[in-house]
Amino acid sequence: MEKKLKGLSHLFVTVFLSGFASFIVVPAITDVTMFALCPGTDECSLAIYVSGFQQAADNISDGQRASAFGILSGISSAAFVCATLAARFLSTGSTFQVATFVSMLAVVYMRIFLEESIPDQVDGMTQPILKEGEDVIQKDVNAPERTTVFKKIPSLGDIICLLKSSPSFSQAAVVAFFNSLAEGGMISSSMYYLKARFHFNKNQFADLMLIAGIVATISQLFIMPLLVSPIGDGRLLSIGLLVTFVNAILYSIAWSAWVPYAATALSIVMVFAPPSLRSIVSKQTGAREQGKAQGCISGVSSLANIIAPLIFSPLTALFLSEEAPFHFPGFSIMCIAITLMIAFVQSLTIRSAPSTSSDKNSSNAMEV
């Protein structure tokens, strides 16, 4: 296991750098937006609307994939911690400059060191390649050796066919949608909610995120790999979603500024959900279809992240304003909690299915 994970080291570095570049600006975004649109205030419906609009492993055996995804998520969490710590001490202007530089560094590093993990040939036989609009084809083994890469965006038909390929896959896609819908809602609403409710600023956001990030990193790197075998990725997914639901409930009814800080302790379990979901998806497809499967789930998640601000940003703005139908500042967060409960209930329906990513099937491409 350790030897195989070392083969992913360049991927881990790339994820760390790109994550650092993305996360370093997060604590400052709320203050920057508020200062630009509503200087001197802690409540600004326009800022919430604008923020919402702006947001709109095939080398590892089946039994070890949840651990691999957990470690990958842990690397991302470590980037989150380092970026948040840097944002805590850098000026607002400097954070965006550092983010730009590290993002460029990530691209350069990836191009130099990160290689394709699936070779064109295995045991002297050329692997089948899918060409757009064609069935699986076999290259002539006597032809000059040459690498051909076909790039295409999967069509709607491709996605539908992939979703129908496995009941567990389609159920995981539903969970991914509602979980990402809630995640996008929290991103677009929680900071503005905390600022209006408890007058949080950039440094307090950074402290809150730093605590959560440290807890998440420790959990994903050291705790989750120990729990995968005895518990299983399906149960870890459900447990993570349930605890995330509880976290959202606490946010929605927070009665003091210390409540969000205390709720960060739940991150030790909340972080089980995303890598567990990715592991379940990974086991439903062959080795050469991992990119397509994970890309499909990412597409579903991205769609939810686009929809989320359109729903929750106006709701947050309404209930933080004086025109709220009733006094419940955290009503939008409560709605996010309900969304998480839907994801949790759906996760309970996922049944263990025979993995299609075994060595026997790794040389076959799925026809879509």
UniProtKB/TrEMBL annotation:
It is a multi-pass membrane protein. Keywords: Membrane, Transmembrane, Transmembrane helix, Transport. InterPro entries: MFS, MFS_trans_sf. It comes from the Eukaryota. GO terms for cellular component: membrane. It is found in: Membrane. The chain crosses the membrane at residues 7-29, 68-89, 172-194, 206-228, 248-274, 295-320, 326-345. One of its GO terms (molecular function) is transmembrane transporter activity. The keyword Transcription does not apply. Pfam families: MFS_1. SUPFAM superfamilies: MFS general substrate transporter. This is Uncharacterized protein LOC111308722 isoform X2. The lineage of its organism: Eukaryota, Viridiplantae, Streptophyta, Embryophyta, Tracheophyta. The gene is LOC111308722.
